[in-house]
Amino acid sequence: MSFEAEGAREHRKLTDPKAMRAVAHPTRLALLEALGRREPLTATEAAQMVGESPTNCAFHLRTLAKYGFVEEAGGGTGRSRPWRRAHIGFSFEASDSAGDTESTIAAAALGTVLWDLWLERIRRIGAMRSAFPEHWNKMTSSGESVFYLTPEEAESFQEELTALLFRYRERLEDPSLRPEGAIPMELIQFTFPADALLPLED
Known about the structure:
Elements: E1 12-14, H1 17-23, H2 26-37, H3 43-50, H4 54-66, E2 70-72, E3 83-85, E4 90-92, H5 101-128, H6 134-139, H7 151-165, H8 170-173
Parallel strand pairs: 1-4
Antiparallel strand pairs: 2-3
Helix pairs in contact: 1-5, 3-4
């Protein structure tokens, strides 16, 4: 199933271990998030958003460009060169189904960086939520569910969730499509087999 509009930037599926290792860096992930909030950005503008030096951001943006995560938006040179995302987000597989050990190790390393980042973000939101204005509290939610699915049903479930989120993907690329009052919302989702938490049997 394809959710890509003609001319739209695609959602990238990472398979190259070198690309996985390149993006598994907190500053580079922060730069991709900053570009998701506002683009194009120069290294100097990005530095103000991610709390790094312009020189450091310029280096990391060039590295992201080398592995196809960002691209030049046109105009400017050096740190004044504007950048934009080459893709709207990315995904990757952490399994070793193809027997590719290098990819498995790279995917595990990227997964660890991302899970640490997401879990820390959730902890921060939990600590801050009592001070949120009322309208922010209404937009913040958490929950836990257990349901029984076959592997095929679980795959279909993920596709349905993706389709739901892609309803709003045009707003990521075109700020003019965002209705008045729209603010960036982040969904951090973990799904896993609950039996993985059970003690291993002898």
